[in-house]
Structures are given as structure tokens and as C-alpha cells.
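FAQ: What does the model actually see?

It sees only this:
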Amino acid sequence: MNSKTSGHDPNRRRRPRRRTGARPPRPHVTQHSHAAPAAPLLDSIECDTTPLAFDAFHLDPRLVEGTRDLGFKETRPIQSAVIPLAIAGHDLIACAATGTGKTAAFVVPTLQKLLTNEPNAKSRVLVLAPTRELAVQIEDEIHGLSYHTTVTSAAIYGGVEMGAQERALKAGVDIIVATPGRLMDHMRQQNTDLSRIELLVLDEADRMMDMGFWPDVRRIIAALPAERQTLLFSATMPDEVVRQALEIVKTPKYVQVGHRSKPANSISHRAEVVEESAKLEWLIEHLRRPEGPVLVFSRTKIGADRLARRLSAAGVKCVALHADRTQEQRRIAVEGFRGGTYKVLVATDIAARGLDIDGIHTVINYELPDSPETYVHRVGRTGRADETGHAITLVSPSERHAWAHLEKSVGVHIE
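And it is asked to produce this:
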């Protein structure tokens, strides 16, 4: 076990890479009326998004050295806007497109807070994330930025033995990065003390507040001190999410960089009208000569497995990723795709959030996403860090009506 972190496969590379069955139901897309839109629940504040050197924030020198190690030369817009507010102690609700640097936007002020105040033997920061992959990636970034400090962290997620995680929690690591379900398991076994948490971060807040996660999230929050700082981050921020967010923050600052709930401008969007029975043939032909790594989204786990098998039978080097795979299978799939062993990753929406892989050339929606927010998160796996990305959606004739409403809701031009 690494002395600074726990909860991972000890053989996994610890330093993050430098940045440079049954037929599924028809997708449901909310239809919007032509009535005038209601006023937003929160007005975004004016923020300076000018790129700055990280030492402009008067950060601890050890933290500045960590930013240099990771190749961070200057802040990105969401970081410029958020870091001063978070360091000042404000509660925040922050919305920015995927791939724009939101993780560092909360990790940097979190580490600065820990390095400024006196340490204690209890955990002081809790970061909640919806998927194992995202929890691991957040903890990797924490580890990289805190490399020259004594700050400790642990990733707590399901699919692996609880022993190493239990030891880390009982030792009182400074930062806990957890998925709600596994953290609840540890809480039931009294493996963790959350009574000294000073800062709560919810990443992918819109997903954390849907009905699948929200009951556990609320139970976890109920175990935290009432006096704490809370930061919420997401690429999409529907009004219903804002309403729930207002239950757990105090006089928050709302920061919006770019358009609310829209993809990054670096992504091109294209729709291909294809008969349902011809989608597989179209996909195989397209993937025979891919211009770069391709991420293909399927709505169901059974569908992802079936599609991956058919593509493999056609000579396409691909692998499937979904929640029914073991943690080791998921790790192998992600690392194989990242390293180039597989040119194509076929995934469910588990990969729509928290899959941070540089250089994904194209995202293909083999089946329509079930909401505009899901579309934004799916296509946000490409076009990251200002690189150019491409999104293609296969639309059967029977899906044209649903697609038209989704296109209008997302608010982007689609060829």
C-alpha cells in the first residue's frame, strides 16, 4: 500500500499522466413548450476567467511544484473563476463543459486549505463521485498535485475487497474520495469517522442528485458537520438539480463558464440517418479505418456486450465496459483502450462520466441517449482540453422525432 494513498490496486501506476436482451425502450426526451422560459433559480456571478499562473494565487510552494509536475502551465477558465472563491471559503455551484479542468478547479483549493490549516488525525475532506473510474481519476489527480506534501488520500469504491480501504479510513486519511454506495458500507461497519469533515465536494453533481444516488448522498451528508464548505461541480445543471443543491449549500456562489448544459465548442456534431437494421453494418464499415480512438455508446449492458462481440467478429479490435464487469475487467478495458491495444471501446453511460482519456477522436451514439444531459456527457469524452473532437449519432427513421427534440434541447448545430 502506498504510504500516501490507499484503496487502489498497488500495482497500478500511481502518478497521473501529464496533461498535454430485450429490445431497449425508446429514448425519452423531454419536450419543451413554447412558453417563455422561467427565470433561473440562481444567477451566475461575474468571474474573471483570464488564464493565470498557479503561483498567482499565493499557493503553498509544494502545491505549485505539483502543478508543474503535471505540466499545468496556467489556469483554464473554470479554474481561474473557481479557485479564488473556493480558497476564500465560499460554497459553490459550478457548471462548465466536460474536459475543461473542473477536477483541478476543486483539488487545488482543497489542497491549499489542508496545507494552510493545522493537520489532525481525522479525515477533513470528502469528495463524492458517481463511478469507480471517476473516483480513481480524482484521487490520481490529488496524488499528483500533493506529491511534494504530506497530504494523504484514499479512493473508496466497490468491486474490490474492503480491507485496504478500511485501514485507510481508520487511519484518518486527509481526503476521502468515494462512491456513495461503498462509503455507506463502511459507515454501516463504523470504519470511518466523518465528524471532522470541513469540506464536501460533489463531482458530477447532477448524477449524484438523481434518484439512484440521492438517498445515499443525503444519508452521508446527514453524518457530516453542519458547519462546512460545500462545492458542487457538473457539466450540466438542470433546474431540478439546482433545487436539490440548494438544500445542502449555504448562500452559494453560482459559477457558469460557457453555456449551461451544452457541449464544449471544440466538438463537431453529426447525425447519420440509418435504418435500425443497418446500424451495425454502418458502424463496422466506419470502424474499419478509424482516424483515432473511438468510443461507442450503447444504452444497455447486454447491448454493449453483444455489440462488442459482433464488432470483434468483424475484425474490429474492441472491448466492452459496463457496470456488470468486475473491477479488474473494467481496469483492463480502460487501460487497453488508453494504451492503444483496443481501438474501440463499447460502453454504457458508465463511461459518459469520469472517463478521462486523452485523444478520443470520435464518440458514436449507436443508440440515442435518454436525455440532453446524457448527450452532453457522452460527447464530452472527446474534444477535451481544447482538442478537436467529433460526435456522430446514428438515428433510425423512427427516432427522428425524438432526435429533433434532443437537438433543440442541447442547442448545438448538428450537420
